[in-house]
């Protein structure tokens, strides 16, 4: 397994991993390219490598299969797990063939280590039914009280936060 910092040239991979992270296939979006037309998702990746962006890429045998990354959002363009303008939000996706191998854990641990130098905390948004919640809890993320919300499709999500320092 390898984990390395995400470079600006990794934007294409991040679109593919955003596709996994956002359950876009299940929501009827048929390719990562079509995420670009969904602003509430596209802003997690668009223009990757901007100031404040931080990410890691990982995989096996030199083949990237996952990524975890952070981006700051403002009150005028909040992402799903927005807490405040100083707290970056995490997105993570691992390709189906790489799941359950420890890659997600390794990506998050590496990202936390780098992020600690720069940020006090990290937030994320996750569906209540997503097994990824167990991973986040194991790594120290806690629910933000009162952050639960139900979208039009009836899916419940919650915002979680990890304090880094
Ligand atoms: C969540 C995800 C990044 C974890 O990566 P991974 O390499 O499978 O993670 P690890 O092998 O290090 O850890 C396994 C943990 O991931 C979670 N997990 C396992 N399969 C999962 C799946 N299909 N979907 C979501 N989470 C999963 C569980 O918490 C599991 O822990 P458990 O074995 O105690 O239940 C990856 O499964 C994934 O991309 N899932 C689909 C997209 C997604 O849900 N992204 C997060 C949106 S908030």
UniProtKB/TrEMBL annotation:
Sequence ranges assigned to domain N-acetyltransferase in this UniProt record: 1-165
InterPro entries registered for this protein in UniProt: Acyl_CoA_acyltransferase, Bact_Acetyltransf, GNAT_dom
UniProt cross-references to CDD domains, sorted A to Z: NAT_SF (cd04301)
Keyword annotations: Acyltransferase, Transferase
Record's keyword annotation contains Zinc: no
Keyword Acyltransferase: yes
Alphabetized GO MF terms: acyltransferase activity, transferring groups other than amino-acyl groups
Pfam families: Acetyltransf_1
Domain of life the protein comes from: Bacteria
Protein name: GNAT family N-acetyltransferase
Organism of origin: Nocardia yunnanensis
């Amino acid at each position: 397994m390898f984990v390395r910092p995400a470079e600006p040239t990794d934007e294409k991979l991040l679109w593919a991993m955003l596709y996994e992270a956002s359950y876009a296939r299940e929501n009827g979006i048929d390719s990562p390219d079509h995420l670009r037309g969904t602003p509430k998702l596209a802003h997690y990746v668009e223009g990757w490598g901007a100031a404040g962006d931080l990410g890691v890429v990982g995989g096996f045998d030199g083949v990237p299969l996952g990524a975890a990354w952070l981006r700051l959002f403002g009150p005028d363009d909040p992402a799903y797990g927005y807490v405040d303008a100083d707290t970056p939000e995490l997105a993570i996706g691992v390709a189906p063939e790489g799941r359950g191998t420890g890659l997600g854990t390794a990506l998050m641990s590496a990202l936390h280590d780098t992020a600690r130098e720069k940020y006090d905390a990290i937030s994320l948004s996750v569906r209540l039914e997503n097994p990824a919640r167990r991973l986040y809890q194991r790594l120290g993320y806690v629910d933000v009280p009162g952050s639960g919300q139900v979208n039009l499709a009836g899916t419940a999500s919650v915002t979680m936060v990890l304090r880094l320092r």
